[in-house]
Design goal:
Elements lengths: L10 E5 L7 E4 L6 E6 L6 E8 L4 E9 L7 E4 L9 E2 H4 L9 E4 L5 E7 L2 E6 L7 E6 L2 E2 L6 E3 L2 E4 L7 H26 L1
Length: 190
């Protein structure tokens, strides 16, 4: 009897910077390569571009618009057309208790972002065991001060790669919300 098939390791999308407005998510072999960019001439529009190195094609898969004193809007694009703008609160629904939220992927599966030991995790909403589909691991520094010894990364299981764009956009929305909540708490304590 042959041994059972090993579980595929998660894809480790490494962040180039610690920003949610200007960074890249990439595998080591660049099979998945996403650029998150906010141009200085469009400071309220963040674009998520997907690079296909084999075909040498750059595709804008999503856009996030965050005008001051207005609600954040999202648009998912297809290769041949731009999508409709939807509110971020309609895409990532919150329950009001924490910074996480739920969203529906393209395959109809409902996922939920939650915090576990202060770090974000993505789980299936109906999963009783709460096995993470994606996990955020923050950067590490040498002796907590010097240069980064390990870059931040988002580990995504292979079964979730079909809805990778929606996972990345939802992560950016939830992480922005988490950072803004942290800033509000600091301002209230002063």
């Amino acid at each position: 009897m042959p041994p059972p098939k090993k579980v595929d390791p998660p894809h480790k999308l490494t962040f180039a910077t610690n920003s949610v407005r200007n960074t890249t998510f990439a595998l080591d072999n660049d099979k998945f390569y996403y650029e998150i960019v906010t141009r200085f001439w469009h400071p309220h529009l963040t674009k998520i571009n997907k690079y296909d190195y084999e075909g040498r094609i750059v595709t804008c898969v999503a856009e996030i618009e965050s005008q001051p004193k207005k609600e954040i809007k999202i648009r998912f694009n297809t290769p041949d057309a731009e999508g409709e703008w939807i509110r971020a609160s309609d895409f990532v629904k919150t329950d009001g208790a924490g910074v996480g939220g739920t969203f529906t992927a393209g395959d109809g599966e409902v996922y939920r972002w939650k915090t576990h030991k202060r770090y974000l995790q993505l789980v299936k909403a109906e999963d009783e065991e709460k096995v993470p589909i994606a996990e955020y691991h923050p950067f590490k520094r040498h002796f907590f001060v010097f240069r980064m010894s390990e870059r931040a990364r988002l580990e995504i299981k292979p079964e979730a790669t079909a809805s990778l764009e929606k996972i990345i956009v939802s992560y950016l929305i939830v992480e922005r919300r988490r950072r803004q909540a942290k800033i509000r708490v600091k301002l209230e304590h002063q």
